[in-house]
Amino acid sequence: MVACFILATCLIFIAGIWGTYHVSLNKSKNVLVATSLARSVVEQKLTLGYNALTPILDNPEVQTIVSRSQIRGRLVETPYTVEAYATDTVEPGMRRLVVKLDWSEPQGIKKLRYETFIFRTQ
Questions:
Q1: Are 103 and 80 a contacting pair, CB within 8 Å?
Q2: How remote is the C-alpha of 1 from its chain's centroid?
Q3: What is the pLDDT of residues 30-42, one digit of tens each?
Q4: Cα 98 to Cα 115: distance, rounded to the nearest angstrom
């Protein structure tokens, strides 16, 4: 009888942990995808060079990218809003590139921001 009580208590505890594990796994996946997307956009813009940032000077380029994944047999779709823009700085020949990502989780809207500078080379 005591053994059944201990087993039941342990099973309830493990079931609670299982739900928390699923939420943590999903949150970790979202942050990993957002970080990879932001880094990819930054590298793409930097590869194109200083002059390629002219179309997005003070005029954000906004796009939505949907990540589809499967967690424990359930399909999860997470839309990411990616905003990239550039601004001229007071230093001639230097621009600031900003990439912002927003996505929604049950706990609220999450944000990520990457910022870097690019110099004009002759």
A1: yes
A2: 50
A3: 888 899 999 999 9
A4: 4
> What is the sign of the dihedral through the CA atoms of 70, 76, 77 and 81?
negative
Q: d(Cα 104, Cα 106) in Å, to the nearest integer?
A: 7
Q: What are phi and psi of 56, to 5 degrees?
A: -105, 15
Task: Please tell me the distance from the alpha carbon of residue 47 to that of residue 50, in angstroms, as a whole number.
Answer: 9
* pTM value surpassing 0.90: no
Q: Assign residue 93 a region: left if phi > 0, alpha if psi is -120 to 50, beta otherwise?
A: left
Three-state secondary-structure class, residue 1: coil
Which of 107, 22, 109 lies closest to 70, judged by CA? Answer: 22
Dump pLDDT digits (tens) for 107-116: 889 999 999 9
Q: Where are the domains of the chain?
A: 2-119
Angle 115-49-81 (CA atoms, 0-180°, nearest 5)? 45
Tokens of 49: 């060079």
Tokens, residue 52: 């390629």
